[in-house]
Specification:
With about 425 residues, the protein is of the alpha/beta class. It folds into 3 domains: about 45 residues, Up-down Bundle (Transferase, Pyrimidine Nucleoside Phosphorylase, Chain A, domain 3), CATH 1.20.970; about 250 residues, Pyrimidine Nucleoside Phosphorylase, Chain A, domain 2, CATH 3.40.1030; about 90 residues, Alpha-Beta Complex (Aldehyde Oxidoreductase, domain 3). About 45% of the residues lie in helices and about 15% in strands. It contains 17 helices and 12 strands. The strands form 4 sheets. The protein has a 4-stranded mixed β-sheet, sandwiched between helices. It has a 3-stranded antiparallel β-sheet with strand order 6-10-8, with helices on one face. The protein has a 3-stranded antiparallel β-sheet with strand order 9-7-11. Helix 10 links the parallel strand 4 and strand 5. It is globular and about 70 Å long. The two termini are about 40 Å apart. The structure holds uracil. The site of uracil has 6 residues, from helix 9.
Length: about 425
Amino acid sequence: MLPQELIRKKRDKQELSFDEIKTFINGVTEGSIADCQIGAMTMAIYLNGLSKAETTALTLNMRDSGDVLHWDLDAPVADKHSSGGVGDKVSLMLAPILAACGLYVPMISGRGLGHTGGTLDKLESIPNYQTCPGNEIFKETVKEVGCAIIGQTGNLAPADKKIYAVRDVSATVESIPLITASILSKKLAAGLDYLIMDLKCGNGAFMGSIEDARTLARSIVNVANAAGTNTKALLTDMNQVLGYTAGNALEVMETIEYLQNVNVNPRLHAITKSLASHLLVQAKIFSDLKAAQIAVQKSIDSGAALEKFAKMVAKLGGPADFVEKARDYLPCSELKLPVFAEREGYVKAMDTRALGLSIIELKGGRTSPEQSIDHATGYSSFCQIGDYVDASTPLAFVHARTEDDYEKAKAALLADIKIGDIAPMIGKTVFEVIE
Ligand code: URA
């Protein structure tokens, strides 16, 4: 069937069959379907939606557009995907924790764009860490260590890459079926048995409202399960910076301290522990959440998760003694200066998105995919909603290269963190579990 006939069908609100979707995706992959046709089809989908069967067909065909990894291992293969936020370093601690608890975790991550940070950028602050080691080293690392966090290899779901590039410039990113197929095609190509989604909601997330996050979560959980990968989703809070740091090398340092059980941020711990224990129960490593939570805590207390992190870094090219000497290895900015609130009181709210964008001003984030970034800059000792701040308690420390950059970051912190007289109610960190 001609591509324009398939587009016409979707434009006229008719259901596409599995084979019709396959024809379209094969054309995208081979290059016989033009970008304008991809744009027309994605707009028709944006406007008219897809049924669950169509979304599943799109996901499976996009997954099969390139390599699909197969694992022959003695335990389940599992991963997490986050919809992204500010200070979201959960992947860095979660992968080694899960590996220490008996799962294999081939984690394929992305770079930061706009207000959100990316796991790959964080890992690239480690000298010589290979984020694109090739499939053989990736597989070897997963097998030997239990976890490996790398970037998307060239031939993993290539149809998604082409379609996403068109969606990005044709106002069709915000479509639940297209987002579902895009995220899942890459995750399913990694050959997972189990997946957990961390869908963030709040003023620092892509999904501002819990209703929108719930709709996306339900779509992803339904389609992933129909496609044969057992999947759950947690809806978690992104109305403030997650953890005490935001900025690449600073977040790696927070990860190491977390895995050393030092300076553990309670909200970060709640989300990490919750994702880990749900996934361990899903994968039948433990029969109930309580037992899984105990195992997760033990993996941190015993140093087993830290050891997995150290081995993963070494196997992927980083220093063998990285964990022992992380402060020596991680890049460091010239300035580390505090910012104090203009009045004392309780931190009552944050404009988390604006705070994420302020990291771009520090060159620690990017506005277009090809931009390089400064791994050293960002924020540490970040205040949390409910903290009392005064002349001796900073809102955060700014890590900057120049006085000018420090002043810009200071202005952002003062504008985007709201102080009140009354201690605010502390909301939930994990809102909901979607099974
Ligand atoms: N992330 C993806 O990988 N794809 C989308 O469509 C949106 C977010």
